[in-house]
């Protein structure tokens, strides 16, 4: 008896030592399950236990791992059923990277940097039930990426910064019960595809940019209610108008499916931040299409010039169309159409006008509730091309010598110029109607060439004459002022005034005629 107990103790110790040798550090091993968890590593360890069934490798947002790409040789355990590779820096996956894991049921690839997903990305995972790709920003998901996953029940594509998503890639997922698309930038969805997924029970569309849900999607809500599921519609850009009025009216019926309190109006501005359940019914009536304003009713431009007509419209679910004089329609689009841009507010821009644009243009704003139109007359002035041809000839002066018989004079040579050809100007004017008008030939008088110095000499003479004239005018003004100040001055005194005055005046002798009673002499 004692010997049998010793043998049992030795056997247990041997089994424990074997298991400890096979179980690597960081793993928890048992007879049926081996679970490993690693952090801060640069790749999948290559000496994992062969019986491993669950593997978790997780970095963090502040300190992610740096795997790079995954290859099929990274996983060799055929028993693995759960694989979590979170924050591992994975940017690419080779074709068939998981084909050595046929028993895999859960694959979590959260917050990596995967750039593209193709049909080969998940090849061989025929038993996969949960796929989590949350946080792989700007990932290009090809339409057939999820083909070959017949048992997939849960698909999470949240926080991937998706602005569009072709839901046709879900058509092969007939077993799908949970779809998570939260935290993206989706503005529209193909709701009919969601309705075709008959097993769909939970949908998370929160945190997107959805504005409306068609009223025919009430069948989808009924389907989810029957399965006791839910739809999360919070934090979207809901436009509270007639299109989602049905949700308010059926909020009581679908109270178990979605919370009407989570639907907060983003537009119109008068209803912003108000819960849909609190919006009065008259505010949810459709707005008829109407053209409020166009800054031009008649435009006149030259051919080739640009034209911009600024308009403002209102209405629910309107279609904006501009129709040119020949009947061609241009519908509002962010792209230019043959040099024409039509904007959703009704404005029209033409980068270059031509004769085809001349005439009445019609702005049409329509919806299923009505239509409004306005005409704008565009007059395009066709360009006229003028071509001027000038014919010039060079005149050669012929010298002529004239000799006089006067002995005191010398022969004088007088050059004269004789034009050999009279210059003419022919003007040809061509119009857009291809008419040619030729003007008559008009002779031009000839003119002798002037010396280059002639203009300069004239300027000198003009400057000198002007200066002399100003000096003379100034002298006359000064003399006039002196005369006015001193009164009349005879020529003798004027002449004497020019002389230098003496220091003391010379006394003059004055003879005074004596009076009858006395004779006196006086000197002054």
TrEMBL record:
<keyword id="KW-1133">Transmembrane helix</keyword>
<dbReference type="InterPro" id="IPR003591">
    <property type="entry name" value="Leu-rich_rpt_typical-subtyp"/>
</dbReference>
<feature type="transmembrane region" description="Helical">
    <location>
        <begin position="458"/>
        <end position="481"/>
    </location>
</feature>
<keyword id="KW-0812">Transmembrane</keyword>
<feature type="region of interest" description="Disordered">
    <location>
        <begin position="389"/>
        <end position="422"/>
    </location>
</feature>
<feature type="region of interest" description="Disordered">
    <location>
        <begin position="498"/>
        <end position="524"/>
    </location>
</feature>
<keyword id="KW-0472">Membrane</keyword>
<dbReference type="InterPro" id="IPR003599">
    <property type="entry name" value="Ig_sub"/>
</dbReference>
<dbReference type="GO" id="GO:0005886">
    <property type="term" value="C:plasma membrane"/>
</dbReference>
<keyword id="KW-1015">Disulfide bond</keyword>
<keyword id="KW-0433">Leucine-rich repeat</keyword>
<feature type="domain" description="Ig-like">
    <location>
        <begin position="289"/>
        <end position="379"/>
    </location>
</feature>
<feature type="signal peptide">
    <location>
        <begin position="1"/>
        <end position="20"/>
    </location>
</feature>
<dbReference type="InterPro" id="IPR050541">
    <property type="entry name" value="LRR_TM_domain-containing"/>
</dbReference>
<dbReference type="InterPro" id="IPR001611">
    <property type="entry name" value="Leu-rich_rpt"/>
</dbReference>
<protein>
    <recommendedName>
        <fullName>Ig-like domain-containing protein</fullName>
    </recommendedName>
</protein>
<feature type="compositionally biased region" description="Basic residues">
    <location>
        <begin position="500"/>
        <end position="509"/>
    </location>
</feature>
<dbReference type="InterPro" id="IPR007110">
    <property type="entry name" value="Ig-like_dom"/>
</dbReference>
<keyword id="KW-0677">Repeat</keyword>
<dbReference type="Pfam" id="PF13855">
    <property type="entry name" value="LRR_8"/>
</dbReference>
<dbReference type="InterPro" id="IPR013098">
    <property type="entry name" value="Ig_I-set"/>
</dbReference>
<dbReference type="InterPro" id="IPR032675">
    <property type="entry name" value="LRR_dom_sf"/>
</dbReference>
<dbReference type="Pfam" id="PF07679">
    <property type="entry name" value="I-set"/>
</dbReference>
<keyword id="KW-0732">Signal</keyword>
<dbReference type="InterPro" id="IPR013783">
    <property type="entry name" value="Ig-like_fold"/>
</dbReference>
<dbReference type="InterPro" id="IPR036179">
    <property type="entry name" value="Ig-like_dom_sf"/>
</dbReference>
């Amino acid at each position: 008896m004692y010997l049998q107990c010793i043998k049992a103790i030795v056997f247990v110790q041997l089994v424990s030592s074997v298991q400890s040798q096979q179980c690597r550090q960081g793993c928890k091993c048992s007879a049926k399950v081996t679970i490993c968890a690693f952090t801060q590593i640069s790749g999948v360890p290559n000496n994992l236990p062969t019986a491993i069934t669950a593997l978790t490798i997780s970095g963090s947002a502040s300190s992610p791992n740096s795997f790079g790409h995954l290859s099929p040789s990274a996983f060799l355990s055929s028993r693995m059923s759960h694989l979590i590779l979170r924050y591992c820096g994975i940017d690419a996956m080779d074709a068939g990277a998981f084909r050595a894991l046929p028993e895999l049921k859960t694959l979590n690839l959260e917050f990596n940097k995967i750039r593209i997903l193709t049909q080969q990305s998940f090849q061989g995972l025929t038993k996969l039930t949960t796929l989590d790709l949350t946080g792989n920003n700007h990932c290009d998901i090809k339409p057939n990426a999820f083909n070959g996953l017949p048992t997939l029940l849960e698909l999470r594509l949240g926080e991937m910064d998706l602005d569009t998503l072709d839901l046709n890639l879900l058509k092969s997922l007939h077993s799908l019960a949970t779809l998570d698309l939260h935290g993206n930038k989706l503005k529209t969805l193909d709701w009919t595809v969601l309705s075709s997924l008959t097993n769909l029970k939970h949908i998370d569309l929160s945190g997107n940019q959805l504005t409306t849900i068609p009223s025919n999607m009430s069948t989808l809500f009924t389907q989810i209610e029957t399965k006791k599921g839910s739809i999360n519609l919070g934090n979207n850009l809901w436009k509270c108008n007639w299109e989602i009025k049905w949700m308010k009216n059926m909020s009581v019926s679908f109270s178990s499916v979605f919370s009407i309190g989570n639907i907060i109006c983003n537009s119109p501005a008068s209803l912003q931040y108000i819960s849909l359940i609190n919006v009065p019914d008259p505010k949810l009536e459709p707005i008829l299409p109407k053209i409020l304003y166009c800054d031009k009713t008649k435009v006149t431009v030259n051919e080739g010039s640009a034209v911009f007509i600024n308009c403002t419209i209102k209405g629910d679910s309107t279609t904006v169309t501009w129709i040119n004089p020949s009947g061609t329609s241009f519908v509002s689009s962010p792209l230019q159409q043959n040099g024409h841009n039509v904007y959703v507010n009704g404005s029209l821009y033409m980068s270059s006008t031509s004769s085809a644009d001349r005439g009445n243009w019609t702005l049409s704003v329509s919806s299923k509730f009505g239509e409004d139109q306005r005409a704008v007359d565009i007059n395009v002035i066709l360009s006229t091309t003028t071509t001027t041809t000038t014919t010039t000839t060079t005149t050669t002066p012929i010298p002529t010598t004239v000799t006089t018989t006067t002995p005191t004079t010398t022969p004088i040579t007088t050059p004269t110029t004789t034009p050999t050809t009279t210059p003419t100007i022919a003007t040809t004017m061509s119009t857009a109607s291809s008419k040619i008008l030729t003007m008559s030939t008009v002779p031009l008088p000839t003119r002798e060439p002037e010396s280059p110095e002639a203009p300069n000499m004239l300027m000198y003479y003009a400057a000198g004459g002007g200066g002399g004239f100003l000096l003379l005018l100034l002298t006359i003004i000064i003399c006039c002022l002196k005369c006015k100040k001193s009164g009349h001055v005879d020529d003798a005194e004027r002449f004497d005034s020019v002389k230098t005055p003496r220091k003391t005046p010379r006394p003059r002798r004055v003879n005074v005629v004596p009076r009858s009673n006395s004779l006196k002499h006086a000197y002054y």
